[in-house]
Amino acid sequence: MSDAAFVGRYGPVALVTGASSGIGAAFAQQLAEKGMDLVVVARRRQRLDELATRLASEYGVEVSVCEADLSAPDAVSRIADACAALDIGLLVSNAGFGFKGAFDSGDAAQLSEMLMVNCHTPLLLARAFVPRLRQRGRGGLLFTSSVEGLIGCPYSTTYAATKAFVNSLGEGLWAELTPEGISVLTLCPGATDTEAPRLQGIDPATLRNLMSPGEVAALALQNLDNGPVYLPSEHYRASFEQLLAMPRPQALMAMAGSMKK
Ligand SMILES: NC(=O)c1ccc[n+]([C@@H]2O[C@H](COP(=O)([O-])OP(=O)(O)OC[C@H]3O[C@@H](n4cnc5c(N)ncnc54)[C@H](OP(=O)(O)O)[C@@H]3O)[C@@H](O)[C@H]2O)c1
After folding, report:
1. Residue of 10, 34, 159, 236 marked active site
2. Contact between 35 and 4 (Cβ < 8 Å)
3. What range defines the domain where residue 42 resides?
4. In total, how many domains does the chain have?
5. CATH number, domain containing residue 242
6. Which end of the chain is more exposed for a tag (fewer CB within 10 A), N or C?
7. How far apart are CA 95 and CA 23, in angstroms?
8. Which of 16, 93, 192, when mutated, tests ligand 1's pocket best, judged by the most ligand atoms within 8 Å of its CB?
């Protein structure tokens, strides 16, 4: 699809959560390159301001900054207020985080925060923006999930459960909205070279088959119409096809073995 056709279908404005780093920053960059105006959301205001200034001057697009903590109960209303006067044609619900370790090694407050950021806020954001997309009769919804949402994932149990919620949400919406001309893609990256592995105490150098955030975002945007669920990594496509064909107990024990490494 040409950039002009992309903006015609999904423009004029895309909302991107988690745009201050990693995959979300790559989405913002690539959408601006296509000529989309943006609303960028995250907590780190300075990063968002720098991104907005750079993208506006490099691509001549309008970029609004919305500082919001997506674990806070008022996050969706803050974002909806920031977008009230804008015609949002593409919602990229991308912000998220996880941690690795035994299920009971994370404190309960952290688990609640993960549920808010990874599940509750994406659900309510979709609830806020789907009626607007339906009214336009065109546009898109993109959820950044994870391959870990495709099966229970020992030593990343809560995170995987949050991403299973996202997969189910995205699949249901895909079937509801595709007939109305709205693309819904649930993106399931594998290991990606962002701040996320380091925040979880993982040295990215120890990860094999690592993709760059730019590659992940580019493939997702090219495959917006190839939902419901899309795995950008060939390696993870092949390995999950094998894993999901195994008897479940065996597959879960294989996951436990590989996560422990
Ligand atoms: N990297 C991987 O290997 C990998 C694999 C599969 C899926 N994913 C998924 O990809 C998505 C993007 O992650 P990433 O890899 O790009 O990691 P990242 O570089 O750590 O980016 C995470 C983004 O989410 C935002 N965020 C986190 N908590 C937030 C909160 N409470 N409120 C508002 N924004 C918040 C962060 O912004 P602030 O800190 O500025 O708020 C940041 O912009 C996530 O959903 C993640 O689960 C990543």
Report:
1. 159
2. yes
3. 3-260
4. 1
5. 3.40.50.720
6. C
7. 9
8. 192
